[in-house]
Amino acid sequence: MSTMENQPLLVAQDLYLKSGIHIGTKFRTRYMDPFIYKTRPDGLSVLNLSKIDERIRIAAKMLSAYEPQDVLIASRRENGWKAVKAFGNATGARIFAGRYPPGILTNSALDIFIQVRIVLVADAWPDRNVINDALQCGIPVIALCDTNNQSNDIDLVVPCNNKGKKSLGLLFYILAREYLVNRGQLKSGEEPPFKLEDFTDE
Fold it and tell me: With a threshold of 0.90, does the pTM exceed it?
């Protein structure tokens, strides 16, 4: 698995591997083929680690172009709740953990109406209400996508195991750290004011 020339990974390779961030599902869509490194004998697809790393880096750059209150991170699936909440605490971004009622971004008559400029969803399928709202508003969408995801209506696909708590914890930890670095609130290489354990159950 080659990494980008002269660009070290965002975290040590064994930390990525231990989190299972690269372990996909037994189902693969043609949308995700470019990110798949191989299929294991047990039928699970394995994602390319350097492509995961590269896309996390791009996602962090995209998010950090916006003020925290203009960013919405959503996860309907419970495995992502702790990681998403920790990201919100670390960065000040808006988060939605749980069932997202359609119209929050589009219907200004709702009490819970909010305006944001970019959204990131933990899984393009259960979080499709958020994606549909974002599309109506013309807001860019970043989506964490496993090997079984479709990528229609998504501006940036971040390939990863988007179902595991460890994987999601590590991914949101890196995103939070890079968001602060890119916004000049943390020096590159400096320890962030939060720990990986804040994002994951381990």
Answer: yes
Give the residue-averaged pLDDT of 65-76. Answer: 98
Q: What percent of the chain has pLDDT over 90?
A: 93
Interval 155-178: pLDDT, tens: 999 999 999 999 999 999 999 999
Q: Can you tell me which residue has the tokens 């599309």? A: 135
201 DSSP β-pair partners: none
Confidence of residue 5 (pLDDT cuts 50, 70, 90): low
Q: Which of 128, 10, 120 is nearest to 65 (CA)?
A: 120
Kindly write down the DSSP assignment for every residue of the chain, as one continuous string: -PPPTT---SS-HHHHHHHTTTB--S---TTTGGGEEEE-TTS-EEE-HHHHHHHHHHHHHHHHTS-GGGEEEEE-SGGGHHHHHHHHHHH--EEEES---TTTTT-TTSTT----SEEEES-TTTTHHHHHHHHHHT--EEEEE-TT---TT-SEEEES--S-HHHHHHHHHHHHHHHHHHTTSS-TTSPPSS-GGGTS--
Domain layout of the chain by residue ranges: 13-198
| Distance from C-alpha of 66 to C-alpha of 140, rounded to nearest angstrom | 12
Domain 13-198 fold:
Rossmann fold (3.40.50)
